Amino acid sequence: MSDRGSLLAQPLRPPSAGRVLLYLGLFVLGAVVGAAGSLVQAGWFPGGLLLALAGEAGLCLGGGWAVRGRGGAVAPAAGWIVAVILLTASRPEGDFLFGAGGGSYLFLLGGMAVAVICATIGQGRQPGGGDVRLGK
User: Fold this and answer.
1) Which of 77, 61, 71, 67 is nearest to 28 (CA)?
2) Which of 75, 88, 106, 122 has a CA that sits 20 to 30 A from residue 17's CA?
3) How far apart, in whole angstroms, are the C-alpha atoms of residue 66 and residue 123?
4) Which helix or strand (DSSP H or E) is residue 23 part of?
5) How far apart are CA 34 and CA 77, in angstroms?
6) φ, ψ of residue 11 in degrees (nearest 5)
7) pLDDT tens by residue, 17-37
8) CB of 114 within 8 A of CB of 50?
9) Could you count the other beta carbons within 10 Å of the beta carbon of residue 98?
10) Between 90 and 39, where is the model more confident?
11) Cα 28 to Cα 11, 72, 114, 133, 135, distances in angstroms
């Protein structure tokens, strides 16, 4: 048994500066992947849509693996969602990036589903120490 006690009983500490920069970098990368994906999915419809969603999934899962926690998957997903939502808004001139086609809706809804799935699958924080089996 660990001498530190339960993970929930540990005091909260602010993250280190390196971890904050890593989360910020993942957020910006998520925004870049969202902007690039919005262009690619419309350019090469079936393949571009799959490529854009696979890029987002790879970034979210890779971020979770790099940080070793769900926050690493949530940061790029949040950046992706912010960028895509900002790109859906029309400008006063009437310009917009997304058309009213089915591919755009698949990209928006599919990307949000991929973000939720990757954040759910991402590694959670595990307490330190060896593995413990009950009843031993």
Assistant:
1) 77
2) 122
3) 10
4) helix 17-43
5) 9
6) -70, 150
7) 888 899 999 999 999 999 888
8) no
9) 18
10) 39
11) 30, 12, 18, 41, 47
